[in-house]
Amino acid sequence: MECKFVPSVCSYCGVGCGVLFKVVDGKLTGTLPLKTHPVNEGRLCVKGWNIHDFVNSYLRLKSPLIRAFGRFIKTDWEEAIKITSDRLKDIVRQHGPDSVGVLVSAKMSNEENYLAQKFARAVIGTNNVDHCARL
Amino acid sequence: MTLKRMRFLQEVLDFVGLGGRLHMEWISSAEAQKFAQVVTDFTEKIRRLGPNPLHAFIQPDMILRPRVVAASGLKSTAAEKEDAKGSLPFTGKQ
Amino acid sequence: MKDQVKKWLESGTVDIFLGMKMVDGHPLPHAFTLGNISDLEELVPGTVRYPLETFAAELAAENPDARIGLAARECTQRALNVLSLWNQAPTDRIETIKLNCCPSPLKEHAACSYLDPPEAGLFKKHFGIDNAADPEAVARFEPRERFSRWMYEFQKCIKCYGCRNICPVCFCEDCSLEHKDLIGTGQLPPEAPIFHLVRAVHMAGRCIDCGLCEEACPADIPLRLLYRKVNAVVDDLFDYRAGEGEQPPPFNIIGERPSLEPKPMENGSACPQR
Predict the structure, then answer these.
(1) Is the N or C terminus of chain A more exposed, i.e. has fewer CB atoms within 10 Å?
(2) C43-44 and C16-23: which strand pairing?
(3) Which string of b and e fits C194-229 if b means at least 16 CB within 10 Å?
C-alpha cells in the first residue's frame, strides 16, 4: 500500500489552478484543490475536480492518428509530423501562406508560444496567429 | 416519523423563504368532509401567498440578473419594501 | 507528535500515518510510513485542512488489513464518528492524534483555516447573505426578502460539485445531485434552489459543520450557514447532533422503529399553519 499526494497545476485553462493529486499504488485516484495555492485558494471548477477521470480514461488519445480512407489509423510521431508538414507545404503552395492560421495555447510555456509564432511568421509567412487567452 | 420529517422540510423551506407552501394532514377515507375542508383551506392559503416566486427564476437570462440589478441601482431599504413589491432584485414579476 | 507517530510506526500500531507535511512552503497531506520515516521531521499540524478522514476511509476500504493513523482535528473526529455510524470507516483500525483546533479561544495556537472567514463585500451584504451571519439573523428577514437573498446566493453556483467532493461525510457512489430524474442536468446555474436544497436535506443529521464545503465553494455561497440551520432543525425535532454519540441518525430510520425518543409535539399538531 502506497499513498502519495502530488501537488500540480490544472491542465485545462490558462488560469493554472493548483491541484493536489491523490496517488494510491501508482494510480491517480483523486483530485483536490490546493488550499494554499495563490491562484485558486482552495477552489476548483468542475473540470479541475475531475482531472483524475480523464487521466485514467480508456478513451484517451495515446498516439497520433491519421485520417485515411474515412477512418482513423494509428501511427507514430515520425510519420504524423511528416504528413502534417507535407500537407502544410501543399496548402501554402496552392492557396498562399495566409490560408494558414496558428492557434497557440496559454498552457504552453512562453518559449513554446514564441516558437509557434516564429513558425507562423518566419516559416509559413502569415500573421494569422491567435491565442486562447486573447478571447 | 413522517410527521417530523415533514416538519423538518417545512422549516428548511421556510428558512429559504418558501414557507407555508407545504402541508400534511392525516385524513381517513371516511372523512370526506375534512378532506374537502383541508383542500379548500390550503388552496385559499396558497392563493393568498401568491404565485410561486420560483417561476420568476426559471428563465434563460437568470445568470445575467445580478448585472441588471447592479445597473438599476435597486436598494432594498425598509421604505421600498413597504410599497414596491417587485423592487427586490430577485422576486421577479408579480 | 513526531515522537508519538514514530513510536506508532515502529511498533506497528499503524502501518500508515496521514498528516500534513511542509513541501516548498505548502502544507500538504502526506502519508508517512516506515519506508519514509525520515519525512517525519517535516510533519506539521498545518494551517489548512484537507479531508484526511476521507483518505483514511478510502485507504481502509481498499486495504482490509491496514491500520491507519490520522492527525485529527475536532471536525475530523466528528467526521470519523459519522462515517463509522454509516459503516464507512472502521474505527477499530483508525488511530487518531488530536490536534489543537477550532473553535479555540486562543487564536494564535489554533491551526485552522476556517477561523477567519473572508468578510462579505457590500453587494453581497446588500443582496445576498453574509457568510459570517448566524441562522437567526437570516431568519429575521421577511420571507420574500429571505427568498430573494438565498436565490441570489444559489444562482451564483457554477455547479463544480466541490461542496460534495470535498465533504468528509459524503460517500455515496450514486449521488442524487447527478441523477437526471431528480435534478435537471446540463444547466448552468443548476436548478436553484433544488440543487442546494437537496444537498442541504442530505446533510441533515450528517453535517459536522467543518466548513470545508464553503472553503471550496468558488461562488462563496453560505453553505455552512444553510447546513447549520438544517442541523439545528434536526436537533430541535429529533434531539440529534451529528458527530456526537453512537445513535443512528434519525433519517436513517425507516418505518415505525424510532430508536430515539421523539420529542413531544407542541400544540398537538405536527404541521402548524403558518
Answers:
(1) C
(2) antiparallel
(3) ebbbbbbbbbbbbbbbbbbbbbbbbbbbbbbbbbbb
Residue C259 C-alpha cell reads as: 430508536
C20 pLDDT band, cuts 50/70/90, is confident
ipTM for this prediction: 0.78
C98-133 pLDDT, tens digit per residue, is 877 655 454 555 556 666 667 778 888 888 888 878
C-alpha cell at C37: 520515516
Question: Inter-axis angle of helices B2-15 and C223-238, to 10 degrees?
Answer: 150
Reduced to 3 states, what is the DSSP secondary structure of residue C34? Answer: helix
Q: Rounded to the nearest 5°, which phi and psi values hold at C15?
A: -90, -30
Label each residue of A78-118 as H, E or C: HHHHHHHHHHHHHHHHHHCHHHCCEEECCCCCHHHHHHHHH
Considering only the beta carbons, identify the residue of B12, B76, B89 that sits closest to C233: B12
Task: Compute CA distances C187 → A95, B60, C166, C190, C267, whole Å.
Answer: 43, 10, 22, 5, 43
Q: What DSSP character marks residue B51? A: S
In angstroms, the first-to-last Cα distance of chain B is: 37
Residues of A in Cβ contact (< 8 Å) with C161: 46, 49
CA distance A66 to A64: 7
Q: pLDDT value at position B94?
A: 37
Q: Tell me which residue in B15, B66, B89 faces C139 most closely, judged by beta carbons.
A: B15
- Cα separation, B44 vs B38, in Å, equals 10
Burial class of residue B77 (count of CB atoms within 10 Å of its CB; 0-12, 13-18, 19+): exposed
Q: Hey, what CATH class is A3-55 in? A: mainly beta
Tally Cβ neighbours within 10 Å of residue C53: 30
- Would you tell me which residues 2-61 of chain B have a C-beta closer than 8 angstroms to some C-beta of chain C? 3-20, 23-25, 45, 53-54, 57
CB C141 within 8 A of CB C149: yes
Which sequence spans correspond to the domains of chain A? 3-55, 61-95, 96-135
**Least Cα separation, residue C146 to chain B (angstroms):** 5
